[in-house]
């Protein structure tokens, strides 16, 4: 995987093969950030990266100037890798090792952008819990957005706060406001 833009543009990051991850493709990531670039100044926002895996999305935000980034994952190896990578690039990424749903139930901090990339094989009920907990606990700022990455075979359009989806190959991003 590589960082597609910003201070660290072009830098390659190689995650250990033993991590249980499926990083967002460079094409999908670049398309997503083109959308976000038209809505936000990256140095003025707060980002929450859920099911952060390798930290791919967190690194992209950090490379573009975001300084308030929290990455949450339940896997010790993922958190360790993000910490090591962020330190080597001197990126300000706070990591939290936690079950994402438990974290969302406890959290009280609001964010401008919340990005969630759960396993593609999650049942629809599990996908539905993500926006439900975020909106019930008011974790988005007023002009904030929740983006959930999922397979093109998963339909989230029936969920509350859903606004639209974008498809990039086999990847989909569903947006909630």
Automatic annotation (TrEMBL):
<keyword id="KW-0489">Methyltransferase</keyword>
<protein>
    <submittedName>
        <fullName>RsmD family RNA methyltransferase</fullName>
        <ecNumber>2.1.1.171</ecNumber>
    </submittedName>
</protein>
<dbReference type="InterPro" id="IPR002052">
    <property type="entry name" value="DNA_methylase_N6_adenine_CS"/>
</dbReference>
<dbReference type="Pfam" id="PF03602">
    <property type="entry name" value="Cons_hypoth95"/>
</dbReference>
<dbReference type="InterPro" id="IPR029063">
    <property type="entry name" value="SAM-dependent_MTases_sf"/>
</dbReference>
<keyword id="KW-0808">Transferase</keyword>
<dbReference type="InterPro" id="IPR004398">
    <property type="entry name" value="RNA_MeTrfase_RsmD"/>
</dbReference>
<dbReference type="GO" id="GO:0052913">
    <property type="term" value="F:16S rRNA (guanine(966)-N(2))-methyltransferase activity"/>
</dbReference>
């Amino acid at each position: 995987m590589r960082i597609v833009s910003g201070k660290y543009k072009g830098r390659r990051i190689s995650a250990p093969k033993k991590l249980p991850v499926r990083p967002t493709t460079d094409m999908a990531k670049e398309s997503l950030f083109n959308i976000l670039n038209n809505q936000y100044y990256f140095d003025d926002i707060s980002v929450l990266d859920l099911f952060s895996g390798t930290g791919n999305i967190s690194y992209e935000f950090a490379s573009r100037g975001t300084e308030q980034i929290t990455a949450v994952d339940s896997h010790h190896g993922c958190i360790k890798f993000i910490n090591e990578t962020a330190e080597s690039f001197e990126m300000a990424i706070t990591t939290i090792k936690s079950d994402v749903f438990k974290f969302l139930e406890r959290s009280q901090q609001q964010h401008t952008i919340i990005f969630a990339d759960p396993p593609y094989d999650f049942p629809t009920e599990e996908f539905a819990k993500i926006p439900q907990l975020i909106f019930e606990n008011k974790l988005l700022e007023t002009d904030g957005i929740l983006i959930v990455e999922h397979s093109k075979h998963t339909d989230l359009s029936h969920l509350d706060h859903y606004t639209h989806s974008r498809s990039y190959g086999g990847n989909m991003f569903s947006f909630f406001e």
